[in-house]
């Protein structure tokens, strides 16, 4: 019986940082055997530095950020700058299903490990190449970091408050790209299962971000309208905003789509007369007078916690949810009931809470099998058991810093 959806699938993982590493981590959570190829000459920067917190780590196994991004993987040390290292990778690819990398375009080819080369080694190999703007085109050399993805995709341009500068988006954009990469690999595996064909996936992280704002592009193409930042306002719905509640920096998000929902909100707030006011009588007038309406609503919400407002409004069919900070998410009863958090026991970091697989499968339930790997933790397994090298050969490769 298959225990995990991707059980039996092996991934050779050259990915690093966030966008690439999270993509292959998703595959690991689905049950694939993901072998992260790394060396002292090219250490994943998330092992030594956190871009989000500015924290430096003394040793490659001390990073909690790396742990979060690489759950369930294995680690093998191979110096790709040496011909013997490249040959080791080819031998590993021959017994694998997927290769994933997010180096700058052209780099993997320069190492002698491009798709056409690997295709000769394993004709049905699936290879993901994730970069900022894809492997072709005049912008192929753009640096691959999330703020760039968000800026060029247009996502940052529409994110922010009306009349203010765009909001700088970072890690969350990496995770969008990662999800798209994992989805593309799953589609390629299904295609191979049906046809026996592998394929090369040339993924532009920028374009994989743009697809989430398709209505903005359609509005420009069809209506000539260039959407920009409008805070939490909707093009049609009102009220549609976040409103201050009791407590320090506590907010509730409310979205009203119909006149019936608005009447329900007014009743819950104890102000049924709002629905009779000619300035708020229908969606059109509410939208044009939403600034005044927002002030009225916040005079009510400020008297309650965001959870209390959510329960009152949801009970009457009005869409409302708290704007959660990390503490709110940690204590959220729904997330706890869904098993959103899991615990792993890391050999260096100790017991750590991590995000569990967010998909619930009835026949192949998922779990976090292991923490992120220690640096080179699985060398013996990869080189000895998988590649069949004897102990003396492994020792020689270590002396020659091929395994390094």
Parts with pLDDT < 50 across at least 5 consecutive residues: none
Q: What is the CATH C level class of the largest domain, in words?
A: Alpha Beta
Number of strands: 11
- So what's the overall shape? elongated
| The CATH homologous superfamily of the largest domain | Crotonobetainyl-coa:carnitine coa-transferase, domain 1
User: What structural category arises from helix and sheet content?
Assistant: alpha/beta
CATH fold topology of the largest domain: Rossmann fold
* Domain module count: 2
What fraction of the residues are assigned to beta strands by DSSP?
5-15%
Q: Over the alpha carbons, how many angstroms does the gyration radius reach?
A: 25 Å
Annotated CATH architecture of the largest domain: 3-Layer(aba) Sandwich
Instruction: Report the span from N to C terminus.
Output: 38 Å
What does the model show?
It is a single chain. The protein is an alpha/beta fold. It folds into 2 domains: 10-211 and 338-399, Crotonobetainyl-coa:carnitine coa-transferase, domain 1 (Rossmann fold); 250-324, 2-Layer Sandwich (formyl-coa transferase, domain 3). It has 17 helices and 11 strands.
List the helices and strands and how they pair.
Blueprint: E1 10-13, H1 19-29, E2 33-38, H2 64-69, E3 74-77, H3 83-94, E4 98-101, H4 107-110, H5 115-121, E5 126-131, H6 146-153, H7 171-195, E6 199-204, H8 205-210, H9 214-223, E7 240-244, E8 251-255, H10 259-269, H11 283-288, H12 290-301, H13 306-314, E9 319-323, H14 326-331, H15 333-337, E10 341-346, E11 350-355, H16 379-386, H17 391-399
Parallel strand pairs: 1-2, 1-4, 2-3, 4-5, 5-6
Antiparallel strand pairs: 7-8, 8-9, 10-11
């Amino acid at each position: 019986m298959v225990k995990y959806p991707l059980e039996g699938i092996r991934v050779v993982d050259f990915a690093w940082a966030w966008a690439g590493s999270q993509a292959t981590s998703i595959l690991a959570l689905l049950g694939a055997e993901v072998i992260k190829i790394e060396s002292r000459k090219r250490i994943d920067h998330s092992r030594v530095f956190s871009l989000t917190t500015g924290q430096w780590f003394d040793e490659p196994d001390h990073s909690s950020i790396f742990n979060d991004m690489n759950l369930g993987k294995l680690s093998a040390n191979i110096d790709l700058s040496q011909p013997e290292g490249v040959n080791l990778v080819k031998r590993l690819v021959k017994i694998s299903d997927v290769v994933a990398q997010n180096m700058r375009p052209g780099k993997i080819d320069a190492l002698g490990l491009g798709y056409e080369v690997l295709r000769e080694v394993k004709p049905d190999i699936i290879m993901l190449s994730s970069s900022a703007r894809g492997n072709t085109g005049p912008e192929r050399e753009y640096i691959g970091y999330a703020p760039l993805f968000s800026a060029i995709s247009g996502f940052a341009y529409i994110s922010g408050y009306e009349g203010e500068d765009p909001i700088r988006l970072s890690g969350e954009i990496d995770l969008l790209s990662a999800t798209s990469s994992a989805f593309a690999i799953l589609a390629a595996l299904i295609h191979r299962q049906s046809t026996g064909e592998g394929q090369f996936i040339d993924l532009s992280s920028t374009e994989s971000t743009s697809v989430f704002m398709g209505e903005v592009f359609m509005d420009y193409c069809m209506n000539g309208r260039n959407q920009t930042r409008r805070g939490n306002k909707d093009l049609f719905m009102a009220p549609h905003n976040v409103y201050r509640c009791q407590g320090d920096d506590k907010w509730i998000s409310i979205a009203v789509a119909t006149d019936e929902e608005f009447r329900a909100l007014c009743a819950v707030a104890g102000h049924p007369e709002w629905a009779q006011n000619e300035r708020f009588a229908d969606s059109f007038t509410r939208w044009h007078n939403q600034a005044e309406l927002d002030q009225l609503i916040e005079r009510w919400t400020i008297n309650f916690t965001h959870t209390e407002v959510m329960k009152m409004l949801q009970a009457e069919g009005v869409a409302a949810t708290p704007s959660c900070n990390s503490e709110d998410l940690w204590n959220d009863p729904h997330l706890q009931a869904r098993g959103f958090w899991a615990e792993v026991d890391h050999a260096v970091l100790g017991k750590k809470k991590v995000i569990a697989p967010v998909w619930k499968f009835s026949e192949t339930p998922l779990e976090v099998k292991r923490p992120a790997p220690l640096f080179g933790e699985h060398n013996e397994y990869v080189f000895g058991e998988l590649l069949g090298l004897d102990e003396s050969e492994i020792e020689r490769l270590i002396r020659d810093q091929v395994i390094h």
